[in-house]
Amino acid sequence: MRSKIWWISLSLALVTSLSLAGTDPGQPDTVYFCQNTLYFAITPGDTVPEAFLKLSFFNDSLVQGITIPFSYTLGFATLDSVSYSGSRVENLIFKTVNFDTNTDKVLMGAIPVEEDPIAPGRGLFATLWFTLSSGLASASLDTTFFPPTNHLYFVNPSGALYTPHWSGPANFNAITYKAGNANNIGGVDLSDVIYLVNYILKGGPAPPVLPAGDVNASCNIELADVILLVNYILKGGPAPQAGCKFPACN
Fold first, then answer.
1. Among 48, 167, 213, 242, which is 20 to 30 Å from 228 by CA?
2. Contact yes or no for 111/154 (Cβ under 8 A)
3. CA dist., res. 115 & res. 241, Å (int)
């Protein structure tokens, strides 16, 4: 019964947001992207380069619902999909993604229906996937209003809405890179292996494009990447993958 009450409460809150406006206690809850660059990976066998952005959030008290609407300007790429895999809300039954391609908007939402409220913490909310469609340029994603009543909202356990802090970034650069091309010179060859060894073991410079060195897509750059790259170059082993190692969040 409790879960149904929360569902009704959230539905009413979205319709009557002005009368149920709440405050954010404690530290400001925050929604943010960790990176300001779209890295489009070129991998062997792929015909269309893909990139992704990880959308994260912080809350220091229980949250009973989240709505995050974005508008986007992507003249060079297409926002294809949104995934909740590996996120803090992955196990919630009710998660939604609603695209409005006429106005270039997307609405993401998650509501604990049968589950407990979202516990305090910091981490991934969703991953936004893009495919490259033309020459590179800058892009923008920013919070917006999504009809009929959706704004950037968190809902506390009493059913009151409040607006978390949006810390961006809102503007993004875009680059392409070859997976495994750690030194960002030419193709993928033994010079990339040497570059990674120097970085990992000798404190040498980091790959100019960090995800290019994460050839096994573990979100770290380590000796396992060197082994995969050697096997690929010398033994015809598995090809380098699109990496997920990015500059750390501030």
1. 48
2. no
3. 35
Look at residue 7 and tell me whether its pLDDT is greater than 50.
no
Task: Map residue 157 onto helix, strand or coil.
Answer: coil
The count of domains in the chain is: 2
**pTM score of the predicted model:** 0.80
Q: What are phi and psi of 181, to 5 degrees?
A: -85, 75
- The first and second tokens of residue 158, run together, are 């009493």
Within a domain: 223:
yes
User: With the CA atoms of 181, 182, 183 and 187 taken in that order, what torsion angle do they form, in degrees rounded to the nearest 10?
Assistant: -10
For residue 16, give the amino acid letter: T
Q: How far apart are CA 208 and CA 42, in angstroms?
A: 16
In angstroms, the CA 243 to CA 250 distance is 20
Within a 10 A sphere around the Cβ of 181, how many other Cβ atoms?
Answer: 24
Per the structure block, which two tokens stand in for 10?
Answer: 């959230």
Give tens-digit pLDDT for 158-177: 888 999 999 888 888 888 89
Whole-angstrom distance, CA of residue 73 vs CA of residue 61: 33
